[in-house]
Design brief:
By secondary structure, this protein is mainly alpha-helical. Helix content is about 75%, strand content about 5%. It has eight helices and two strands, in the order H-E-E-H-H-H-H-H-H-H. Helix 2 packs parallel to helix 5 and helix 3 runs antiparallel to helix 5.
Amino acid sequence: MRSEDRLVAGQVALVGLFVTALVTAQLTASKLLLFQIPFSLPFTGSSLVMPGAALAYALTFFASDCYSELYGRRAAQVLVNVGFAMTLVMLALVYTTIVAPIAPFSGVGQSEFAGVLWSSANIVTGSLLAYVVSQNWDVLAFHAIRRRTDGAYLWLRNVGSTATSQVIDTVIFVTVAFWAAPLVLGVGPVYGQNQILSLIVGQYVLKLGIAVADTPFVYGVRRLLADR
C-alpha cells in the first residue's frame, strides 16, 4: 500500500477509535471500579478507585496523540471538536430512545434500560467539561513540545502532553461530577474530600500508566502509516 493510502486509511481508523472510545467512556462513566494494587498510595491506599470510563477515555488520548503526530495540530483540534459534537449526538439519541414508548413485551424494562445507558446530570456535566478543556490542552501541549524539540523525542511529547492533560481531565471530572454538580444540581451524592482525592489519585495513576505503556504503540502507528 502506498504511503498516501496508508495515511488515508490510518486517518479513518484513528477517527473511528477516538469517537468509539469517547462514546464508550460516556456510557460507562457512572460505574465506579476498584482494583487492588501491591503497594500503597496517598489517599487511596492499596486500592485504585476510578470511574468505569477511565480505560476507554485514556484511549482517546492515544488516538489524538497519534492523530496529532501524523496530521498536525489543526486536524487534531478538528478531531476534538467533532468528537464533542458526536458525544452530544450520542446523548440525544440515547435520551430519545429512553423516553420513547416501550413495548409491553420488551425483554428489558424501561428503568433498567435507562439505568444502564443514561448517566446522571452530574456525570454528563463533569465529563463534557473535562473533555473540552483537557483534550484541547493535550493537542496544544503535544505541539508545543514538538516545536521546542524540533520534532525529536516523540516519547516526550506523547507522555508529557498526556500526563499534563490527564491531570486537568481527572481533577475537573471528579470534582465537578462528584462534588460541585451534586451541590449545584442536586443530582447524585456529594462525595467527601477523602473520596474525591481517592478518585483523583486512582484515575490518574491508571491514565499515567497507560500513557507510558502506549508510547511504543504510538511509534508503531507512525512507522506503519508514514515514512520517517
